[in-house]
Design a protein that fits this description.
The protein has 103 residues and is an alpha+beta fold. It has helices spanning 14-22, 26-34, 43-49, 54-66, 85-101; strands at residues 41-42, 70-75, 78-83. A hairpin with a 2-residue loop joins β2 and β3 (78-83). α3 packs across α4. The longest helix has 17 residues, at 85-101.
Length: 103
C-alpha cells in the first residue's frame, strides 16, 4: 500500500474530479444518455422528455458544460449542447491507464 495519502493528484487526474462530480448526479447521467451520435440538443428538447423543469435542466446543463462534459454554442436565442466526446475519452483513458497498470 502507498502511504502518501496527502500528495496532490497528478495533473492528468485534475479534470477527472470535475467530470465524476458532474456525472455523479442521476439526472445529469440521464441527460447525457439522451444524446444520440453527433446530436445537438437545446434546453427545451431536454425538458420536454424529462421530469425536470426547464430551469432545472438549464442548471444541470451548466454543470455539465463547466465540467467540459458538454460543449455548447449559442445560435440565435437558443443554446445547443453536444457531448464533448474527445475530452471524455481523454479523461476516462487516464482512469483506465491507471487501472490497467495495477494488473
Amino acid at each position: 500500500m502507498k502511504t502518501d495519502y496527502t500528495r496532490t493528484l497528478p495533473d492528468a487526474w485534475q479534470p477527472m474530479s470535475r467530470v465524476f462530480t458532474a456525472l455523479g448526479d442521476e439526472h445529469r447521467q440521464r441527460i447525457l444518455l439522451l444524446f444520440e451520435k453527433r446530436e445537438r440538443l437545446n434546453v427545451g428538447q431536454i425538458a420536454e422528455v424529462s421530469t425536470l423543469s426547464r430551469s432545472t435542466v438549464s442548471h444541470h446543463l451548466k454543470i455539465l458544460r463547466e465540467a467540459k462534459v458538454l460543449n455548447s454554442e449559442k445560435i440565435g436565442k437558443e443554446v445547443w449542447y453536444w457531448i464533448n466526446c474527445s475530452y471524455l475519452e481523454q479523461v476516462l483513458d487516464n482512469v483506465l491507464t491507471y487501472v490497467r497498470s495495477l494488473e
